[in-house]
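Final report, Chapter 2: Outcomes

The project's central promise was a pipeline that accepts a single protein chain and returns its three-dimensional structure in a standardized token representation, suitable for archiving and comparison. That pipeline is now operational. To close this chapter, we reproduce one record exactly as it appears in the project archive, with the input sequence first and the structure output second.
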Amino acid sequence: MATVSFYADDVKAARDWYAGFLGVEAYFALPSQEEPAYVEFRIGDFQAELGIINAKFAPHKVDGGPAGAILNWHVDDLEGTLARLVELGATVNEGIVDHGDSGFRTASVVDPFGNLLGIMNNPHYLEIVESTRS
């Protein structure tokens, strides 16, 4: 993944919610930090981009219901991260699903702005990250 784009009617509120969840501030905003129509975060081991765009620019109808593809982000603590997302106001879309003996486990939530957010334990991702450190 290089960039994922989410949409929100209130970009400022979405920026603040994701900053609280991610533990980092958005590093970029247009046209301004005070009245953003677009904000961007750098996240994860490879500093992928999470962009939040004003819903009026969405290529699909944004009506507050769950929308978008589920992009799963690797997390080390699936249960803890799911609980934290719910604490922050997300609603569970799909609880934790164990995908057999492979170690892959997934869950998804709907953020307060209607975007689907997937989280997972992903052994393959950890192998790739480790290989880049060698």
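Archive annotation: The two ends are 22 Å apart (CA to CA).
This record, like all others produced under the grant, will remain available to the consortium after the project formally closes.
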